[in-house]
Amino acid sequence: MNVVGATVGWLSDPANWTGPNGIPTRVGEHTAICLAAMAIALAISLPAGLYTGHTRRWAGLAAGLAVIGRALPSLALIGLVLPITQALDPDRGFSLYPTLIAMVVLAIPPILVNADAGLRAVDADVVEAARGMGHGEAGLLRRVEVPLALPVLLGGIRSAAVQVIATTTLGAIFALGGLGRYIVDGIAQNDDGMLFGGVVLVGGMAMTAEGLLGLLQRVAERRAAARVP
Amino acid sequence: MRIIRTLALGASLLVLLGACSTGGGSSPAAATPAASTGGASASDPVTKIGSDGFYEAKLMAEIYAQALEAAGYRVDRTAIGMGARKVSAPALESGQIDLKPEYIGSGLAFYEPGKQTGDPAANAKELQTVLAGKGGGITVLDYSPAADQNAFVVRKDTADQFHLVKMSDLTAVQSQLKFGVATDCPTNPVCAAALKSAYGLDVSGATKLSACDTPMVQALKGKTIDVGELCSTQPDIAVNGWVVLTDDKQTQPADNIAPLVRDDLLGKLADKAGFEKVLNDVSAAMDTATLTDLGKQVSVDNKDIAVVAKAWLQSKGLVK
User: Fold this and answer.
1) CATH for A3-227, among 3.30.565.10, 3.40.190.10, 3.20.20.60, 1.10.3720.10?
2) If interface means Cβ-Cβ distance under 8 Å, which residues of chain B face chain A?
3) Measuring CA to CA, which residue among B74, B72, B68 is closest to residue B33?
């Protein structure tokens, strides 16, 4: 039976849309994990990137992070972290926390680097003019720098989101739920329909995030262009 | 920044060194054909040996490979460790490889789910019947006394707490235990269905992990699960003092090791009987206890597979 036929068959089978291993449940789990990872990564990298970009200090930090972040294999990171988190919580510390941590580490470089670069790229003259008009540092950030840097920043968030959505599938090796479950189980059970159904779903989710954030990015671009006189 | 650059250079060098020095068994001794024993002939084709990806399959493949080389046959080891049965079985059928070590029960289940039993002779016979019609004919040579079958394992403290000795003991206390089963359990007839019908165990909510693999071991060690599905020759069992629960209802298939060889290759050999004898002698000399010990040397003590294989073959007088 060809792969396309098997996949279409699996996706259209109503039995696969119900229950704890059903598509809605797995999509929900996957979304929750990715959102949590992105939220934590944003909480860490946004303040850091905005700080270094605004003050134009620590130039090497973003560059260094970009290199390390791209080179660090998530699977290795999961393996390293697992014994530690498992000791803290035998259930979630085995399946959830290692993957969550690895995804946060994966998401930080694109967000931080883009926040930093986006702010640095804001025209120094514009910043000077705004300072001259009496804006304090915080107001400067909020009203001038971030709106102008927003497109680049959103580009970083978009990149991070897509990578996180795709890589969260690794967690299934350690019994995590989410869409990776279909890929890992599909391979083990020799079920091409499940395997490629999972692939289609992950790809679909990633492309949806890419599309939505891309839209936001274009809106931000237009508004940024409108702001600069 | 210089520190970072130095570290990066150091890391790249380490990677290069690692890449160059690993590859157990990648430097075969110059195979000068043995003085004529009526055995190997210069006209014999190269035997392409493959195996599944885990250490035990690779070890057995390497042992067969070295035994054949010592007898004067030329061997190609590239496909040792090529992947799971899903990969190695088609490779054998297509001729991509000529020989692979197989576990007769699981191998049979791969082709005919449900046909495997606890009787090795029956499994071997049935597997041969199936393979006679695959890939132009594949021969199942003699199976070894050595068997590596699915084993359900608990930590010592769990065994003591619930008085667990055999699988049947699990039934009464299953709600108090967290189970870890193989990822293919739901659809594997010797797993979910067999556990239910023989022991009344419901593993539908069990944690699914790759059987016999590191995540399963780690899960059992760290108490994420209480009952894990491992392989009976797995060194982790002895190393951690775990207890193997006896499969009293014999649900798990007898998984003795036997080499599978393509008839295509056998037909081209000058001395087919001699070739088969080399492999059969190796299989006969191996047993479960030895296989467990050799496996421990490879996977726990991290000794090189080729070195361990050679030492064992020499100790048995199968190679010089």
Assistant:
1) 1.10.3720.10
2) 1, 4, 8, 84, 86, 180, 182-184, 186-188, 207-210, 215, 218-219, 222-224
3) B72
